[in-house]
Amino acid sequence: MTAFAVPTIGVEEEHFLLDPESRLPHPAADKVVTRAAVQLGDQVSGEFTEHQIEVKTRPCGDAHRLLAELRWLRATAIDAAVTEGVLLCASGTPVLAADSPPPLGDHPRYRAGREQYRAMLDDFAVNSMHIHVHLPDRELAVRVGNHMRPWLPLLIALSANSPFHHGSDTGYADWRAVIRSRFPCLGPPPYAESLAHHEQLAAAAADSGAMLDASLPFWDVRLNPRLPTLEIRTMDVPADVEDTVALAVLTRALVLTATAKASAGDPGPRLSSEILRAAYWRAARDGWSGAGVDALTGHTLSAPAQAARLVEYIAPALETCGDTSTVSAFLDRLAARGTGAELQRASVARRGIVADVVDDLVALTART
């Protein structure tokens, strides 16, 4: 493991913009992005709907730098949002929402998506966290993706922050993952034997109409088309910025561990797609407080037990990167208060008022 240099990491966070009175998503992305961009430049942009914005860190070498960058991005975006009369909220799904489809952001790809997927996009207002790990060798990155696939369901459970949707408790920890699961090319990447095989699979999906563009796949692990990174896209955006950082460095350690195996000639496990799909569903339903399917064995294990196995698996990489204490503190927080899903349910449990969930999320998002 020490033969590998510590790669830089970057994070993209998507956030809702909310009306402060109704607490419903509010279409103010253009105004907020324009104002925030005075300081953030291209580190802030619009998203799929006019109810959302995205902030993007620069490449960071360590957890401390990443935390400082995210705090600055959030604080600047919050100031811009408040000036424009709205609130910033980190949640995988809108806790409260109108019944009508949200207005689309101004991008040709979003309009093409509407044409392609139609009513499937009527409630597709979801916020993810995307983690970029520097990995410029695309042939190697494909094989690394094969090794990442078994752990993607656990990343869903560790980041779950979307139990509510349109004012109702869905009974799931990560309803965003359920919304995404309806799409044919959102989810785990297919097993690929090589870069050429990976590109063939993407081209076939695009030819079928299931994917918009073969050069821009939306699988949960992808070779970023514009950056020399492996991009992991399976997680909810956390409200707690320290959770974001911990998940980012944990993911980097997982990529480093997979890189060592792939570089040594290990092609990665050929998982059953049915078992992996079941593991995704179970992780989305039960999250941290329940059990999940170990995609490597098919056995059912508690999320904390799976997390302990993951930490043992990536321990040398965590030590190499200096991130062991960051991840340990994160798991201690989960043991004490759960993920965002448990925090959201605790908010409504106090007085039985769903609006309290929104208020607590807004406060936690701003606690930088």
UniProtKB/TrEMBL annotation:
InterPro entries assigned: GCL_type2/YbdK_subfam, GCS2, Gln_synth/guanido_kin_cat_dom, YbdK
Domain of life: Bacteria
Sorted UniProt keywords: ATP-binding, Ligase, Nucleotide-binding
Catalytic activity annotation: L-cysteine + L-glutamate + ATP = gamma-L-glutamyl-L-cysteine + ADP + phosphate + H(+)
Keyword field contains Metal-binding: no
Gene Ontology MF annotations: glutamate-cysteine ligase activity
Function: ATP-dependent carboxylate-amine ligase which exhibits weak glutamate--cysteine ligase activity.
Family membership noted in the UniProt record: Belongs to the glutamate--cysteine ligase type 2 family. YbdK subfamily.
This protein's name: Putative glutamate--cysteine ligase 2
Native organism: Mycobacterium deserti
